[in-house]
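Following up on my earlier thread - several people asked me to post the actual chain instead of describing it. Fair enough. Here it is, all 191 residues.
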Amino acid sequence: MTAQLRPAPALHVARWLNAAESLSLDRLRGRVVLIEAFQMLCPGCVSHGLPQAQRVRETFREADVAVIGLHSVFEHHDAQTPVALEAFLHEYRIGFPVAVDAPGENGGLPRTMAAYGMQGTPTLVLIDRQGRRRAQHFGLVPDLRLGAEIMALIAEHEVGTVAPETAADAAAPGCDEAGCSAPEPQGDRPT
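Reply from S.P.:
Thanks for posting it. Predicted structure:
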């Protein structure tokens, strides 16, 4: 996770798909936000980036985690139009909101992609409940690692604090960071 806790850059959106209204990071405060930057013609996006974003959406409560797609086209512009994107989202059954990244100046990188300093697609960004960018990954992110990062952000209640231990953790004697000791057997031991 990133050590510098600065507000995440705003999203520069030309159009929203799969959303009843325009979204912003400010409106999503209080939830962890996962942004999956992708292109329709990016093999890594289609094979693992978007399916992973869908799994996150299915796994975590919407009240805790908002999943947003960001279609950031920096190549093959004529083949990746908003109309083609609508068909793509329908065919791949992607139901989470997708922003079409606003074009960059003079044919440069799309505006949100440039603001986040993304290297390419797929790029996954995690934003905490306070609207701060906490992680950014280019390429494949293992599911277990991503799940751990998301859970750590969900567990944070305020700046610098982590969720208190659960009742189960507090009631489990002999447990620490290294593991849990089995209780001593009581009564007759088998021979």
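The chain has one domain: 13-177. That should answer part of your original question.
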